[in-house]
Amino acid sequence: MKSIQTDVCIAGGGPAGMLLGLLLAKQGVNVLVLEMHKQFEREFRGEVLQTRFVQMMQQLGLWSELEQQTHVRLAAHDYYRGEERIARVEFADLNAEVPFAAWMPQPVLLGYLQEKAQAYPSFSMWFDAQVKELLQDDTGYNGVLVEHAGEQVEVRARVTIGADGRFSTIRRLGGFEYEYEHHESDYLWFICNMPSDWPASIRLVMTEQRNYILFPRYPDQLQAGIMLPKGQWKQITERGVDALREELRAATPALADFAETLSDFKPFHLLQARQHFVKEWAQDGLLLIGDAAHCALPAGAVGVSLAAATAILAAQVITEALAAGDVSKERLSRLQQQREAEVREIHQTQWRMGGRPPQPGSGKQPLPNFAAGLKKVFVMEKALPVQSGYTF
Ligand SMILES: Cc1cc2nc3c(=O)[nH]c(=O)nc-3n(C[C@H](O)[C@H](O)[C@H](O)COP(=O)(O)OP(=O)(O)OC[C@H]3O[C@@H](n4cnc5c(N)ncnc54)[C@H](O)[C@@H]3O)c2cc1C
Q1: What are the E-state strand segments in 91-241?
Q2: For the FAD-binding domain, which residue ranges apply (predicted)?
Q3: What is the pLDDT of residue 299?
Q4: 269 Cα: distance to centroid of ligand 1 (angstroms)
Q5: Domains of the chain (ranges plus CATH)?
Q6: What is the pLDDT of residues 245-290, one digit of tens each?
Q7: Which of 35, 164, 274 to mutate to test the pocket of ligand 1 (most atoms within 8 A of CB)?
Q8: Beta carbons of 339 and 309 less than 8 angstroms apart
Q9: Ligand 1: which residue has its CA nearest to atom 29?
Q10: Ligand 1 geometric centre to CA of 45 (Å)
């Protein structure tokens, strides 16, 4: 079997893995990213980049290039009960310096990070590379067995990273345990045409039956999500597509045209609304980051931001650990010590907000408690402790 050696092997080329790969490569660390898909193209992933993500990219010095890429700026969150707008929260009221969130196709974001990383000779990436097994010796974990384009390859690494998302293989293989894990609802996603008068905003529509989330998708579509209690999708399919068509038609005028054309369930993609937190993110030679370690609920669209923040600080922890020749669990746990308080706080805020959508208010006024919760989720209160060598 072919065997190769690197400093850091990252399983997963999502936002966390790509950002970590870039930052390590910038430090001259030999890094190999393994991504099981053949390209970045995928439907329905984290495409709203929250204000806090923009703040981090500004801090790294990457935003001026990123904002040249395809994206839509979102100025506000609007809350509707049926057709009546009951509240509006403007990003400008939450953070005057970054008064927007951005919708950016994830392949665009990941492609940008890849291109940037490829400028460093110590960066490598394999697509069509699915991690199958963890390798270990008596000092701890030291790499993975990967199936790359049909060939089994042993990748030996001083540090192995699980950046392989919410259903992480590395987490399972490494026997990591959850401190908590929730899955109580699902999101049913679909794409429809955007009405010509749609403002640059994310809209939550509350109806008698359920809540909908709608936001612009470049250049002229809406991405729409129906929030469902876990398991209800089965009942909806049993009731038949006619009943769902009627429901969508009545929910909000923006969905009426889509409802007219609906003849089967093919346009819908069901995704779990999960939240989990892994008790300990590190083992000897092995570290979880991003959704593999901590997965947020969809409320506030903050998963990419949390994953990015963990990846940025992971780059510093790993580079220092390699330089010290100490990749023990204790050393790598420094990442969790830096990150867990914020992750826990945002998870808890999501629960507090999730059960209490805003009540009818007047016009544009944000509802005080809800807006405070949104601010906590959307905006980074203080800059990450990023060292100067990690900025561009
Ligand atoms: C439908 C949906 C909508 C979302 N919307 C938003 C949003 O608008 N804004 C937001 O901030 N967050 C959103 N999120 C959350 C966000 O997508 C995640 O929090 C974020 O992508 C986590 O980044 P990550 O790099 O940790 O994991 P991921 O993005 O999941 O990346 C993991 C990568 O690992 C790869 N992989 C998995 N297993 C293996 C393996 N065995 N070997 C090799 N590669 C592997 C996967 O193919 C994937 O590319 C959404 C999530 C979902 C499901």
Answers
A1: 101-103, 123-126, 129-137, 140-148, 151-162, 178-193, 201-206, 211-217, 221-229
A2: 5-346
A3: 82
A4: 15
A5: 2-180+274-390 (3.50.50.60)
A6: 999 999 999 999 999 999 999 999 998 889 999 999 999 999 999 9
A7: 164
A8: yes
A9: 14
A10: 6
